Amino acid sequence: VQLVESGGGLVQPGGSLRLSCAASGLTVNSFAMTWYRQAPGKERELVARLIFGGSILYDDSVKGRFTISSGVAKNTVSLQMNSLKVEDTGVYSCQALVANFGEVLEYWGQGTLVTVSS
């Protein structure tokens, strides 16, 4: 199983970026995909979660600015980030959750760096 993230980079405050994540090699489709971020010196935190066919969850700090959506292909998700702030800087990682005979398996991407700076 492999998760590949793309779309990170350097952007000025107030700018926008779009992150994408694609999971391959899954024998069972993911039921939820989540973006996490880890800022320098801080714990990893949940940014946005999409439950396929169900609900969406955002961290309060990104509500109204970030939008998570599923892609056309199975097991893909994007994160549109608008009105970026310096405090949005961090490594953004994608997680896929898969139900497997009563347990939940987690798969992670390698992360993509987002730097918001003037």
What is this structure, in a nutshell?
By secondary structure, the protein is an all-beta fold. It contains no helices and eleven strands. It has strands at residues 2-6, 9-11, 17-24, 32-38, 44-51, 56-58, 66-70, 76-81, 90-100, 103-108, 112-116.
Description of the structure:
This protein is mainly beta and 118 residues long. The protein is elongated, with a radius of gyration of 14 Å. It has no helices and eleven strands. It starts with a strand and ends with a strand. Strand 4 (32-38) and strand 5 form a beta hairpin. The strands form two sheets. Strands 2, 4, 5, 6, 9, 10 and 11 form a seven-stranded mixed beta sheet that branches. A four-stranded antiparallel beta sheet has the order 1-3-8-7, with no helix packed on it. The protein has strands at 2-6, 9-11, 17-24, 32-38, 44-51, 56-58, 66-70, 76-81, 90-100, 103-108, 112-116.
What is the topology?
Layout: E1 2-6, E2 9-11, E3 17-24, E4 32-38, E5 44-51, E6 56-58, E7 66-70, E8 76-81, E9 90-100, E10 103-108, E11 112-116
Parallel strand pairs: 2-11
Antiparallel strand pairs: 1-3, 3-8, 4-5, 4-9, 5-6, 7-8, 9-10, 9-11
